[in-house]
């Protein structure tokens, strides 16, 4: 990791403060802390966590680029199924979880205005005060005439929600547990103090939920001794809480991940946990706590199972490429300008990044979860891979 740029002194000072908090957590827990608790601390501690400290995260000046940051075409495509859901419901709201820089919200709302299908309200549930301020500034600069429709929430709305819910790269940022299958039992990854930093501590787990989840995976995927991966135990309660507020509507999820048999394939025997800092990926979650992103791929089979348990219908599952192409991506590209014009060439390059298998096209997937909305939706008509779940 010698190629990673060293953070500035003020950032290192914040990381040092967070490190002391984690060390105190470890001491209070008796010497070891479940990795999920460490990940939660590093990402979401108010004022110090990665998503809460106010540092630059998205875009060329940050640590990674999301699809909405890459191209306005992503949000414009997603507006199509949003408009159809709103039309079938006779109106309603849109609720976006973790809106990041606000790019997706601006693009979706702007396109819905062009389609003549604006929601009653565009709600944004954002935990980070810094990101909330950036989102508000983006609307002020780009869609000031629609600002009155945009409202920021600190918690889920009351029950009775009707409309569309959007979660783009939300599940991958939920804290995960790491486990090791020994061949006869399960070891859980914990974090211990190591000098001024941290290190892994593997130990037999007493976590009943973790044991049950790994045993379920083992029955389907036949893990071999030495297999190491992660599991997201937060997905089911998250979906349960979200489903609890939905009266009628569709939740569109977009994230990178696999169906369970692919996720826990023998080729993935070291898991998918990854850290991102200044557009460089590495596997050390103990480097500069609070200054780097930590993510894990999504087990979409687990998402589907949790959705059904929560009373939602799984209405579709498709690659990002398949979803966007079914939402008029080619039409929007043709409208970008004459062939060989700078605007068209730029848009065409963005489309390649969004859809090619070696880029984002196959690594990312969309899933639709619905209640009280009948009929096929744009995004899953030309490709639906639910049978792979």
How would you sum up this structure in a few lines?
With 389 residues, the chain is of the alpha/beta class. It contains 13 helices and 16 strands.
What is the topological layout?
Layout: H1 9-28, E1 33-34, H2 35-44, H3 67-70, H4 72-89, E2 93-97, H5 103-114, E3 122-125, H6 129-142, E4 150-153, E5 161-168, E6 177-181, E7 186-194, E8 197-204, H7 208-221, E9 227-231, H8 235-243, E10 246-258, H9 260-263, E11 274-277, E12 280-282, E13 293-295, E14 298-299, H10 300-309, E15 313-319, H11 320-326, H12 329-334, H13 342-355, E16 364-371
Parallel strand pairs: 2-3, 2-5, 3-4, 5-10, 10-14
Antiparallel strand pairs: 1-7, 6-7, 6-9, 7-8, 10-16, 11-12, 11-13, 15-16
Number of helical elements: 13
- Structural class per helix/strand content? alpha/beta
Per DSSP E runs of 2 or more residues, the count of β-strands stands at: 16
For the sheet with most strands, the description reads:
8 strands, mixed
Descriptive overview:
By secondary structure, the chain is α/β, with parallel strands linked by helices. It has a single domain, classed as 3-Layer(aba) Sandwich (Rossmann fold). It has 13 helices and 16 strands. The protein has helices at 9-28, 35-44, 67-70, 72-89, 103-114, 129-142, 208-221, 235-243, 260-263, 300-309, 320-326, 329-334, 342-355, and strands at 33-34, 93-97, 122-125, 150-153, 161-168, 177-181, 186-194, 197-204, 227-231, 246-258, 274-277, 280-282, 293-295, 298-299, 313-319, 364-371. The strands form 3 sheets. Strands 2, 3, 4, 5, 10, 14, 15 and 16 form an 8-stranded mixed sheet that branches. Helix 4 (72-89) crosses helix 5 (103-114) and helix 8 packs across helix 10 (300-309).
């Amino acid at each position: 990791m010698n190629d990673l740029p060293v953070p500035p002194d003020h950032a290192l000072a914040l990381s040092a403060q967070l490190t002391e908090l984690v060390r105190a957590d470890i001491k209070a827990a008796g010497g070891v802390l479940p990795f999920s608790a460490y990940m939660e601390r590093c990402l979401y501690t108010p004022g110090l966590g990665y998503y809460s400290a106010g540092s630059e995260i998205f875009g060329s000046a940050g640590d990674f680029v999301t699809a909405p940051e890459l191209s306005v075409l992503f949000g414009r495509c997603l507006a199509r199924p949003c408009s159809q859901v709103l039309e079938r419901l006779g109106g309603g709201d849109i609720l976006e979880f973790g809106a990041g820089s606000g790019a997706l919200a601006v693009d979706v709302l702007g396109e819905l205005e062009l389609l003549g299908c604006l929601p009653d309200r565009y709600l944004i549930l954002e935990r980070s005060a810094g990101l909330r301020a950036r989102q508000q500034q983006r609307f002020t600069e780009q869609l000031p005439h629609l600002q009155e429709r945009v409202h920021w929430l600190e918690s889920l709305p009351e029950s009775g929600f009707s409309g569309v819910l959007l979660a783009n790269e939300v599940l991958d940022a939920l804290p995960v547990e790491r486990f090791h299958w020994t061949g006869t039992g399960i070891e859980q990854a914990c974090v211990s103090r190591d000098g001024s930093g941290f290190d892994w501590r593997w130990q037999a787990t007493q976590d009943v939920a973790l044991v049950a989840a790994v045993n379920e995976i083992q029955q389907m995927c036949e893990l071999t001794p030495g297999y190491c991966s992660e599991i997201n135990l937060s997905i089911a309660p998250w979906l349960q809480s979200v489903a609890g507020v939905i009266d009628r509507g569709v939740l569109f999820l977009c994230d990178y991940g696999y169906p369970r048999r692919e996720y826990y394939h023998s080729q993935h025997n070291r898991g998918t946990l990854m850290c991102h800092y200044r557009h460089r990926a590495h596997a050390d979650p103990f480097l500069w706590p609070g200054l780097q992103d930590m993510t894990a791929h999504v087990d979409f089979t687990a998402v589907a199972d949790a959705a059904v348990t929560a009373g939602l219908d799984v209405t579709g599952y498709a690659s990002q490429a398949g979803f966007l192409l079914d939402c008029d991506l080619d039409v929007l590209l043709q409208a970008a300008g004459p062939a060989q014009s700078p605007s068209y060439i730029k848009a065409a390059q963005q489309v390649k990044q969004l859809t090619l298998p070696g880029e984002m096209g196959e690594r990312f997937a969309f899933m639709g979860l619905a209640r009280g909305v009948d009929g096929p939706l744009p995004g899953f008509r030309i490709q639906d891979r639910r049978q792979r779940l």
